Structures are given as C-alpha cells and as structure tokens.
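S.,

Sequence below, as promised.
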Amino acid sequence: MKYYEFNGLRVSEPNNKKRKKAKKTKLKAKTKIKEPMSRKKIINICIGVFLLVFFTISATLYSNHEPTKEFLDKYVFRKDVYENNLPFIVIDSVNAENIYAYGKNIMILHQNSLRVYNKMGVEEYNIDVKIKKPLFASKGNYLCLADKGGNKIYLISGRNIIWQKDLEGSISNICINKNGFIAVSIADTSYKTIVETYDNSGTRLFRQYLSTSNVIDIDISGDNKSLAIAEANFTGAVIQSSVKIISIEEAKKNSTSSIVYSGIANPGDLIVNIEYNNRNNLICMYDGRVDCVKNNQNEEVINFSSEDILFVDIGLNSGIVKVKKKPTGLFSAEAELKIINSNTMENKSIYTIEGIPQKIYTYDTMICINLGTEVLFINGNGWLTKRYRSSQEIKDVVMCDGVAGIIYKDRVEIISL
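The prediction came back faster than expected:
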C-alpha cells in the first residue's frame, strides 16, 4: 500500500481495485437474486404439474369408473387379444386333461410322450413317460406327473426326469411344493388309503396310514416342515370331515406321534380343498366356509353358505377368490370378484365381471375367468392383465407363470401374460 504526505498528514492511497471488485461482486449478487425464472423452467414445471394431475385423475378413474377402465384397457394398454391372432398348437383327439402349462411352456401328453411347446407354439423337446391318465402338479421349477389309477410317478425339472418310481397300489392324488417335495395318496392296499411323502431326491420320508377315511386333498408347506391331509369319512349317516397336520421331521422318526394338529369339522360339513399359502398358513375350504389354521389354531374366516356364491378358490399364493352373482336386471346379470388376503383376511380388491363365469382358475398370483367365449386374466391386485375374445365356445384353459393356453377341439392358442 502506498502513502502520501498531504498538509502534514500521511494518508494511504485508496485501493480502487478492491473497491471495484467488491462493488462488482455486490452487483452480481443482486443481479442473481433479481434474475427472473426462465421461460423454459416455467414450461417444464407446468408440464410436470399437468402430468401429475393427469395421471392422478386417470388412476382414480381407472380404479373407480368402469367405462374409463374399459376404454383405457382396450385402446391405450391394448389388453384385448383375439381368436386366430395368436401362436397356436394343432391338436388331434387330445383330451383337455392331457394338456398342461408349466415353466412358461404348454405341455401335451400324447401316446406316452410329453411334448413341450414354447410361447410361439414350436415343439422344443419331449419326454418319454408311461402315463395313461395324467395327474399334474407343479410349483416353482418342479413338475410332478403321475398315472391316476396306476402306479407310476415322475418328478421333472426343466427337460430332465429327476426321479421316477413304481408305487404299490393305485395313485389317487398328488401334491408338490416349490422345493420339489411330493406327497402322494395311494388306494387299493390293505389300508383305506396310504399317504407317502418324498423329498426332491426321491427318498421316501415316511408313510401315513388311514384305515377308515378317504383322502380328499393333501399339501406340503413351502418350508418342507408340514404335511396336511384333508379326510372325509362317508361310512356313517352324515359326512365327517377332518384335517390333520403332520410334522415331517417327527414323522421320519416316529409316525404315531407326529400329528401336531387335528381338527374335526361339524357333522355334514364336507372338506373340499386345502392349500398352504405363502406364509405357510393352511387354508381349508369346506362346502360352505373357509377356515385358516395358523400356529396350529383353527379360525373360520369366510362363511358363504348363505350367499349367492358362484365360485370360491384358495389357490392364490396369498389370496382367496370369491365370485358372487349380482343381478342387474330382469334378463341380465353380472358377477363380483372379491380377492381376500389369506394372511390378514382383509379385502384386497373387487373386480366387476360383465356376465356369469363358467369356470375360474388360479395359479400363483393370477386369476383366470372363463366366460364361455371370453377369458379374463386378472392379477392378485384385481387389475386386468389380458382379455381374450373368441367367436366360439372355449373348451378349457391352462395357465402357468407368464403363459396361458386356450383349448379348443382342434388347437391350443397361446397367450403371453
């Protein structure tokens, strides 16, 4: 800094550079604060707000307004598919019971050959099996195939037969879990019924003998810990149904002390089906109600004996499907599909069906509604995934993860879900 003498006083030279710099910085800051928002930014914000409002209104209308939902499904989301516009497989005198969907493929059993077709209807491979009347059961990567009334059983994964056996007696029912554990009920032995359980290597874990009752259904929990058996005794004046849960670990040691739960239904109540859900709670369906066995305690969760019920299904991995008829006029009717969470027993969603379903199917998280010449595919949240329309009567439908087969007398049309 420089100093000067002025009238006997020593004064410093003002630092003009610093003052100018400070002044510039101050002006710049003021300019920045006062700078108006650019037109581009305003336009972007307006577009963002508009899109947010648009999608919010659209989602609300889609959920609550049927005409809007139908319009968007048909013209925006393109969920409608039509007969003769899909890949197909030509069939010749094959029963619908011989057609199955597994592992994103359609399978057809014909003359002891299990032929496997991809989504485009092209045969990829075949597996030689000796089956006259097939029983199919699949979960995850595993498929169990057995001869109903015969004695042969196979565990298949992908293209390979993991193991196969000839059992003593006549096979009446099978089940499989996601880890490839299998239970099979066998009749025509010295006992009324025998239930055998196998692991995924084909090792028999134990046998359960039933001397007086018939096995209605069987299922294995997803954690490989429990086998559930639904039984019915028809020898008395009224039907007597019961459900047993067996500890697989205990049964391997001593089958007589392995029963961890035994529930007897009211006289006359017929057990129809049992299914373990994704939390290993056992869902039991009777002819007028649905029970849940959780922590070896039974609780009635749905009673539909007094309702105008068309179908009830417990096959979803975490849901119960109930379809109820709803009259809308003198000559018209529609149905209401209700999905109930099988863990909390709360209503998850409701879907209105225009018309009366002929049959429903479930697999994992997907529901299929067969209306005769129209098929709806609805996911576990109650949203339409695909709608198939036909000019002729649909014979049957098979479904697995990502693929469905629409069965006619002469062909199977393939839908990707």
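The first strand starts at residue 3 and ends at 6.

Coffee later?
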